[in-house]
Amino acid sequence: MFKKLKEAFKSFTQSILSFFKGEEKEEKPTPQTTSVQTVTEQVTEVSQQETTQVETTAPRVEIKVEVKAPEKEAVEKPAISTQVQQPVPEVEEKKPGIFARIAQRVTEAIAYTKLSEDKVTKLCEDLFVKLVECDVAVEVSELITENVKQELLSLKIPRFGADKEKIIREAIKRALLKTIEDVPDVDFVELVKKIHEERSPVVLLFLGPNGYGKTTTIAKIGYLLQKLGYSVVFAAADTFRAGAIEQLEEHGKRLGIRVIKHRYGADPAAVIHDAIAHAESKGIDFVLIDTAGRMHTDVNLMDELRKIYRVAEPDLSIFVADALLGNEALEVAKTYSKYVNIDGLIITKVDAYPKGGSILTFLVVLKKPIYFLGVGQRYEDLIPFRKEWFISQLLE
Ligand SMILES: Nc1nc2c(ncn2[C@@H]2O[C@H](COP(=O)(O)OP(=O)(O)OP(=O)(O)O)[C@@H](O)[C@H]2O)c(=O)[nH]1
Ligand SMILES: [Mg+2]
To answer: Which listed residue, 83, 184, 200, 215, has the most CB atoms within 10 A of its CB?
Structure first.
């Protein structure tokens, strides 16, 4: 899953990593002289006189690793762990804090490295291109790249010993999570259980253009709800496409779920009305409504959808989005939400969609929860979607 997007993040991580590895090589051989010199340059607030004092008194030893930053006030002994024990330089009492500050800079300069803004900008330009190639919409790629850039600029990587790759991955993960922070993370099962505690039947309406996977997804959700112990009825409100009723009936037969239907050409709102009435009279827990696929540009069919929505008064109105159609599906969803409310999404055909980018686009642009990813044609092929899980998958 998401193979191409994963590769994009992987190669980005590797580019940053190779930069840090190069740095480490340059810095390693004669750490003492270079380090103190670097530090001297960094400590701009220290006067020239103080700087000279440091250069002459700092321990001339190979500073190994574990470097503890001293407490602000603990001036007497710079807490630098060294291989060779050296006399601690005497500090004049009247200038507390200077050595502590310098020692801290020594510590930081030796122990950590940072990426320069130029380097980060260059690396992020490459990331931007890769994201766009993976179907992430341009404005979303910009947002992600900017967040990644901010994270990387504030990143201090230990030069020695640390798992640098992990640190970089975590930074990218924080940036991605920030990009989608205002999208609710919804556990579909918990949500419908909660709704069901309040009222029954719970009505779920499935919307989307032709062939996006509505009917298949309804069957999958019916199967899931049955496994949770609920009773289900299907409403065959696609009275338009030839074969649509039989397709739903076939699923109903396999799953042991009753299908409420009228003839082709009948008013879909009437089918929905009957299905809800049936569920109420029989004490059935869930009504799943299959609607005809319609393009967002077809004004008549979109007006019909508005009527369907009014009659169904769904507890959840679910837009079924075909991942393969990427940003085209996004435009459709945007127009749909001008006609009816959309509570959440299910993204189908993710198993056949290595790019993965449209999922990020959906999240950032629509700001609606994704309940599931459809990952195949079997009833079990539905993966609950969680933001943290998704982002971790991308950075695996
Ligand atoms: N690989 C894969 N195929 C899927 C998935 N979901 C649906 N499909 C396939 O997509 C095709 C269309 O699915 P349908 O469920 O008929 O789509 P629909 O939205 O109901 O289509 P209309 O009724 O024409 O509007 C079928 O061949 C499904 O088997 C999925 O998650 N993965
Ligand atoms: Mg259908």
So the answer is: 215
Neighbours of ion ligand 2 (CB under 5 A): 214-215
Q: How far away, in angstroms, is 296 Cα from ligand 2 center?
A: 16
- State yes or no: pLDDT of 82 exceeds 80: no
Is residue 216 lining ligand 1, measured as CB closer than 6 Å?
A: yes
Q: Is 289 helix (H, G, I), strand (E, B) or coil?
A: strand
Q: Which ligand is the nearest neighbour of the Cα of 209?
A: 1
C-alpha span between 4 and 355 (Å, rounded): 5
Q: What whole-number distance in Å separates Cα of residue 115 and Cα of residue 161? A: 18
Q: Whose CA is nearest to atom 10 of ligand 1?
A: 213
pLDDT value of residue 43: 40
DSSP output for 310-346: HHH--SEEEEEEEGGGHHHHHHHHHHHHHHS---EEE
Least confident window among 100-114, 144-158, 265-279, 311-325: 100-114
Strands (E), 54-126: 63-67, 80-82, 112-113
| pLDDT, position 23 | 58
Nearest ligand to residue 322 Cα? 1
| Residue of 210, 216, 264, 288 to mutate, ligand 1, most atoms within 8 A of C-beta | 216
pLDDT tens-place string over residues 338-361: 999 999 999 999 999 999 999 999
Structure-block tokens of residue 123 = 């690396």
Distance in Å, CA 208 to ligand 2 centroid? 9
Residue 68 scores a pLDDT above 60: no
Q: Among the atoms of ligand 1, which is closest to the Cα of residue 247?
A: 16
CB 374 within 8 A of CB 216: yes
Other Cβ atoms within 10 Å of 25 Cβ, number: 9
How far is Cα 58 from Cα 370, in angstroms, rounded to an integer? 58
The answer to whether the CB of 348 is under 6 A from ligand 1 is yes
* CB distance 213 to ligand 1 below 6 Å: yes
Q: How many CB atoms lie within 10 A of CB 153?
A: 16
What pTM does this model have?
Answer: 0.80
H or E stretch including 206? strand 202-207
pLDDT of residue 349: 96
Higher pLDDT, 102 or 186: 186
How far apart are the C-alpha atoms of 194 and 187, rounded to whole Å?
Answer: 11
